[in-house]
Each structure stands twice: as C-alpha cells, then as structure tokens.
C-alpha cells in the first residue's frame, strides 16, 4: 500500500530528487530518520543502480534508502520508478561479482560508470506481495551496505517503530475509520442467531469436565433442540489436545450437540504449501505444472476451507440448527470457517461495507494474530514457527466465490489484492498487532490511520467496486469440486504474467456499465454517472 | 428402493424428422437422474430410430418450462446414433461392454455419449420381449459397422423439403472463384495460382476439386504422384510469406522408387525456393508433434475423467484430480500444438519465411496447425463467418477424413482420432485468453463440437470432397429426386432458434473499427504492432514486403543472388521463438492483429463448458461465467433499446421492428451449466458432495466410539 499512495500524494514534493538529504523527501515525520533508523542505514544513496523486474524493461537510476522506504528514481529523466515500503521486503539475496581487472561492460551507462572499482553486486528483493526486484549495484561495499540496511530495516520488530505510526496522509483524520464496538469474551454471536465460534473447551485429560462450559452450551439450545459443533481439528488432534489442557466436548456431557471434525491445516503445513505454490509459479515455462500445483496442496486447502464453510452454512440453513465452530484457540481456522460461512449465507456481508465489517469483526477484533502470522511471506524458508497464510487462504476462498458468482459480491479482485498487501506490509494500522489488547497498548487507534478510512474515500472506493454487482439475496453455494477451484492467478501470477488483456476486458465492462448507468440516468435521473478510474491504477506502481 | 410412481399409461410418440423411421421401442423404462446416485428418476418409453435413441418421458407433457437454449434437432433426451460412444449392460451389479450379438439381456443399460452425457436406464420393469428388441436394436444400430449410404444423412436429404441455403457468408471453397477470392483477400495471388488440374478428380480423390499451388509448379508435377510431394497453399501472411502443406511420400521399401521420389522432391524444392521465392522452412509434423495414436490415447483417458456414472465415482477422483489430469497428457498435447503454431507464426511473421507443413496425408495435423496459425494471425478467422470458411477450407474441402476419424461408420477403431476436437480445444484456449478478439463464444465451439455427431449435415460426414460428390447423385435411393441437397452445419437456424443463436455471438467482441471513421487510428495500430516485433538481424531485411509492387526494385536487387535454401525445422534457434513470444506478450494486445496464446502451465485449461456441463456437482446456482455473459447481454440489450429510443426521437420515425427479447432477466438464478443444464428439474441445493453427509454418519460413529473410549479409560481407573 505504501508503495502505492505516497508517490501519488507526495509526487510534486519530490523536486530535489537526487539530493541525499532525506528529510526533504516527504513532509511527514516518517522519513525524518530518527536515530534508531539512521544507525541502521549504512549507505543512503547509490547512483547508477540498475533495476530489473520480470516482464518490464530495466531502469537505471539513483537508489535511496529512507527509514521506511526504498526509492529509485531513474536518471537522467528523474521519474520515480520505485517506491517500496521496506517492510514489504521478505527476503534479501545478494550476489557479489568481483570483476577484477576486466573492463566494465560497455553498456549505455558506461561513461557515467565512474565507480570503476571493478566490482558490483546484485541484490534480489523478494517481497511479501510476491513481487521480485533485482538491483544491480556498482561497488561491492555499497551493495553489501544496501543489503544489510534493507535487512535490518525490514526486520525492525517494534510495532511502534513501524510506518503506520509515522504516516500522515493528507485528507484523512486520525480517528476516522476506527470502529469501536464491544466484544463478548468467550463467545461471539455473529450473523444470524445461530452461528457461534469459540476456542476449545478446557477440559484437559482424565475425562475432566467443565461444568460451566456445559451449562453455557446448554443454554444456547432450547429444549429438544440440536446443535452442531464443527471442530476444525482432526478427531485425533482434538484428543491429543487434552494432554495440554484443551480437548473436545464428549457426547455424554453435551447430549444436545453433535460434533463433527473437519481437519483444516494451519501453521507450518499451510505456510509450506504457500511456499511451494509460489515456487511452482516462479518456475520458468512451468513444466509439469499440474503435478506441482497438486503437490503444493494449496488448492486442497482452499477446497477444504470452502467445504467446511459450506458444511457450517448447510447445518444452519438446511438443518436449521445452531452451529458452534472451534479449533484450538479459535483465532485461525475457526475464523476462516465462520467468516466464509457468513459470506455464503448473508448477502449483507457481500457489500463493500459489509465485507469490511466482516473482516473487522471476524478477523481483526476476533484476534487473528496478524503480526505473527504475516510476519513473513513465501520467501521465508524455515524462519519462524508462527507464520501461516490463513488470511491469504481466506482471501483466496473469497476470490473463488467472486469468480463463481461474478456479480454477487460488491467488491472486486482489487480489494482482495489490496487486503493481502496490507496484511503483510502497510502504511495503515488496521492489521497491526495480534489482538485488541495489544492494539490498545500500542495506541494503534490513536496514532495510526485506518485502512478503511482510506479505502472508503469516494475516489479510492471506486477502484474496489465490482462493476457487475447486483444485490443477490440468495445463498451462494459454491462448487467445491476440484474442477471448480482455480488458481488465483491475479495474486500468484500478478508479477509474473501481465493481466493486461483481462484488465482491458474489465475496462470494457466498466465502460459498458458506465454507459448504461449514464444513459439510464438520463431517463431516470436517479443513478449517478461515475467516471471509472483505471482499475489497475495503484497496484501497478513499482512496475 | 425406487420411489414407485405409477407408470402412466399414455401414448407418447417420438417426434420424427423427415426420413426418420421408428425401428424399435420399449415402454416402462426407468431413467435415472444422473445427479445424485439415488434412485430417483422417471418412467418412459425408450425408442430407437434410424437417427437417434430417444427417451420419452411419460410426464413430458407437463414440462411447460421450455429451456431457453434448446437444440431443435437433438433434444435433451435424444442421442444420435453417431453420438453413442459406448454401451454397457449391467448384469447382477456387474458392468459389461455391449458390442455385437447378445446372449443375455441386461437389467440396466448405461449409454456413454461422445458429448459426454451418461444415460442410465433400468429395464427391470420392461417386458422381456421389448428388452430384447430395444437392447439389440440400440447396440446393432449404434455399434456395428454401417454402410455409408445407410447414414441418416441420406434419408433425411431425400425426404426433407428443399433446404434453404443458410451458409451465411461462409465461403464453401467448392468453386474456383472461392479460391481466387481467398488468394486475393490474402494478397497471395502474386505467387500462387488456383488450379483446375483435379477436375474430374484426375489427380487424386483425396484432393479437392480446386486448390492452390505456387505459380511455378507445373501440371505434370501435380499429376505425377497423385499430388504427393506438391506444396499446397493454405494462406499468405501480410508480408507475403505463405503457409503451405504437403502430402509426403509413404516410406518405400523399393530403393529405386524412393530415389526417384527424392529426386522429384528436390526438384520441387529447387523450383519453389528459387528466386523470387525465398526461404522455405520444412516442418514434418509426423515427427515434431504427437502421433494420432498418442492423441487418441490421451483423449480416451481424458474424457474418462468426465464420464461420470454417479456422484460417488466423481468424488472418488477428487483427491488426485490434478495428477489424473496431467497423466492423461491431453493438456500437454494442446500445449505442444499451440507451441508449434507459435513457431510457425514466428517464421512467417518475423523471419518472412514460407513454411511447408509435411504429413503423410496432409489432412490431419496439417489441418490443425494451419487452422490455428490462421486463427492467430488473421483476424478474419476470428469472426464467425471467417472461422467457418476456415473450417471449410482446411478441413471439409481440405479433405480431413471426418468419417474415419470420428469412426461414424464403426469400420475401424484404428483410424479413430479426435483431430478436429483437438483444434476446437486449442481455439478454445485462445477464446478464453482473449475473449474480445473473437466474434463467437465458447458456447459456439461447444455446439460445433456437438454437431460432429448430428448426421443431418453433410459437413462432418464425408472423408473428402470426392466422396461427397460421388455420393451426392442419389441414384441408389430415389432417382427421381435428383442429387441430394445436403444441409451444412453453418446454417445454425436448423439447430437453434434466433434466441438461442444469440448465445453463439460474443457481446464483448471488439469489432474492427470501420475504416471510414477511424482510419487513422487503425493505421497507427498496425504500425505499432509491426514495430513492436523484434527484427531478426540474421535475415536480410530486404525481403520485407517482397511481393508488394512498391518493392520491385528490391526484387531486382536480390535477383541473381542465390538465397533459395530451405531449412529444416531442427535448424531453428529456440531462443528466437522465446524472444518472439516474450516480446509479443510484453506489448499491448491488438485484437485485430497477431494473437499468440499463452502456453505456460497454468494458462492451458480444461474446457469446462464442454467437459463439465453434465456434471451437477460442477454446477453453481446463480454463478459461473454464464452469469457474466447473461448480464452483459442484458446490458447490451438495454443500451440498444436506449439507442433505438434516441434514434426515434431524432428521426421521429418509429421503427417497430427492433425489439428486445428479455433474455435472461433472472440471471441471478441461472445455473452456471446454462445453456446446458436442465434447470427446471433441479431444486436449488447446496453444492456439497454427498460424501460429506456420508462422512457425517461416520463422524457420528466416531463420536460414539470416542465416548466409549473415554468410558473405558474410566473403568480402568
């Protein structure tokens, strides 16, 4: 996100472009490089850096590192070519070429190549949004300095040091977009009367019972009523959880409830699946593609998540039963299932506002640990144990729904991509921290801007709307058979395969809708004619 | 186990076409609904005619809910005899393939169709006599060898009223004029000529009456080996480079014969690669592409994934879907064919080199590659009439052996290969990658593939023009009726009413801008496209625009220089291909210019509409691409209506003719399998696998077991 908005907003202020005087870049505190940051930046600017990206012509220019951004402005024209939030960097790979006595290659820029130290280096930046950038930097020392500066800046742990605490976009007020709503503690009632979620009951080993929990679950159901408990762990895993104080609801103690186990992978298996898929996508030519796609198992995860959500929805809608969903902590796969089930059942969740509400309620306030889960993306081999792309899996499932029901969701793919980008690296505070308590300790709501406030600005909002949307009051039952689950190319191949012709098709559809709207405006005078902005504007930044 | 519904004794009669005869019938046949593996279904009458097998629902009269997209010739419960793929009988729960004479009669009949429908009939309630008659009738008429003249095509043509000429601008390539027009259209007439040498089929019965060869080829050469070894023109590129095909000599045992043939070929190559002709690249498709046998094997395996008896089987393939798909090799074959077409396009477009495709008969893979290259390079082939003309040119008149390849007469399975389907599958990849570039939709391709099995059109029921012409005379059946007048499949009104035909046209087609209005713009576009292509420095640029009059001086310059040399396909540098591919894809797409398919792994997809359309599990209620299409059709219609209103206000003239058909007002409730799903029969239900509910029962057991386990441990304490 950050790689998008600042150039648009701060573009005119970039006059002294090639000056290393960092503070003039941006009029916010953001780039003022407090002491903590300036220690990390070993080399702030390097000239004559060659930037290459797949599918795009290479650009030569001046590289500049600020406390939160990596910038490249092309020389001699001075256009800003790259504005990358350093937080977005997932992995830095460096390679140094010692050219010894060889003459520097006679390329176009060889005359300006004054730094004939005979060596250069290449830094490959693998970003959390899956784009890959390559920087060819003259001078071995500069290259190593830049690489270590990026590494250091991208792994700053302290939340309060992150960019959202410095970012002050014009036109937005700080308090805007932060909803305050009370939360219930153990259970939260959502959507209809009957879908509930929780963490596991703390029964523990030796057939101990938790009377309070039994009572609580008992009060939910009326006399003679039956409910379903969907446990997102396997029966085996649930049983094992007793050893560490968790467990399941034994049938004898919860006579009105029927327990169903739907094992959904989380944690490491999911993260590895994500990594394998991204690797398969990056493979040139993609031989044996289907085999690799299958063995990544990503689509199986999508399918499993969707069918479990369907199961919950089916119990609610078809059986008329109350449904309780839980796994272990109730903050990962549980949220995946409840959020998807609501999207399937409840048309109000499918509007832009409704979806934001759903995310706010079912993911953010429900305590999905974004900071832990999204600390690293697909290039982080064997780093942390906590990373897992559950939120991405959710977005993928939503994308499947949007593809299967092309006009039942008010928002389009662009929103899902933006959410993915922001969950991993953002200028806004919305996805910071792991739960409400941490957010309040860090004063996130007081000191950062909300992503929703920014998204909901009238002009911005237009970019995320689905031109084909029409309210669909029905339940949208997705097809979960493997033939219907598709690879989300818009995300996984976003930087590999340009989607220009698809964008054009969408532009044409927009144009049609727009033409139609404005012509019916003539006749009805009711609808508003909008000029639709380029749907790809924004994300294409850095390309 | 069956929901017994009193069979209604009611006379239901099959709707017969002209010339169609009822051969046998059986009543009280129970047809299972395919979807859920339960035993739900309907009673009715099963009939077999000389055209089709048909199930007549006893309740059919109550069906007032007419489907919006209906084939007028083949109904939802009709299977043309040629559409039957395999028939199985079920004896005591065991499936057995039925082919010829039967000793025992099955209690269930499963019919697998070539359009991938599966019909399950229960014969347990049918009189034994009728079972015998209907089963042996169906097996005999659909599975045993047949004489050409016994095809329904002939009875229909002799009995049907004088048919209208509905070719709608499709060029049939039956006359010399048609070929000359095509030469002129592609500006190929400087170097190529249409010849009449084959009049009376003097040269070969496999070649069309008229065809086009390089000007320098003599009549004697054409006649020498029945047209073998002669380059036959397919198409000329805007820069003058041409695509040619040639039927190769079969492998000869006799040395002297093969020596002579080699000398003949060398002579031909020398002639056509002598100045002013330029480089010629040979491509022997029999070695550079999978064999017909490979293609047939791959397709057999592939289609098996979609011929689903019941839902349980379907979900069983669930886990291994992608590896199953990959192991069929079908998508890989599509990829290789597309890649070959890109290679050829690169030669023509960038290297300005003529390409000669070689194959033993030049009527199989040659047709696939030459058609694909034209679809990619000639935007005319992406219009409906242009595509139809292309199929006429390369396939129907070009002499593709439809009769043998589809095994319509059940003569020999060895000859069977889905070559034409392969082309449609490849074109579909392009259609889904570049929807605005095509005037037709995927539904058009799907119904075209279905038409392969509808024997009222002559289009796909002969091996060659010669075979059609010699069987046209009709003397053996009805002398008085004169020559048969066959229908062509391009007359879509025969199968679909105008409302249904709307689904064949792409509302998002980016029509070519009219030259008078935006001439400047188009010109610039063309220019851009040409500039965007990398020039290959190795090739003399003097050859550009060789055949244009303005470059006459260039011809003079290089005349005398010996540039004539032919390259074999193995000589090519693979890098130039990659460069061409990458460079094209990095530029904006001109929908009226060159179109290259993306062939990376994820881009080659399963043609879901054709292969999944009968599988209810793949159905989305109120979703799928059809929802978008319907919505867009609605929008276009609204725009049109408004346009009409505005025009009316301007001219004050009321044109009553323009009416808008409210097509799919309720698109939110449409099934994604539309136009092929039978919506009126299905309740809106969650698309969850039945296995989920089966598991659910298991879970119940598991929960109980769980409790028992706990109790046990307590006892032990």
From TrEMBL, chain B:
Broad class of the protein's primary localization: cytoplasm
GO terms (BP aspect): phosphatidylinositol dephosphorylation
One GO term describing the cellular component: sarcomere
Domain Myotubularin phosphatase: 173-611
Keyword field contains Cytoplasm: yes
Pfam families tied to this protein: 3-PAP, Myotub-related
Stored SUPFAM superfamilies: (Phosphotyrosine protein) phosphatases II (SSF52799), PH domain-like (SSF50729)
Annotated keywords: Cytoplasm, Sarcoplasmic reticulum
Keyword Ribosomal protein annotated: no
Subcellular location, record wording: Cytoplasm, Myofibril, Sarcomere; Sarcoplasmic reticulum
Family label: Belongs to the protein-tyrosine phosphatase family. Non-receptor class myotubularin subfamily.
PANTHER family: MYOTUBULARIN-RELATED, MYOTUBULARIN-RELATED PROTEIN 12
Protein name in UniProt: Myotubularin-related protein 12
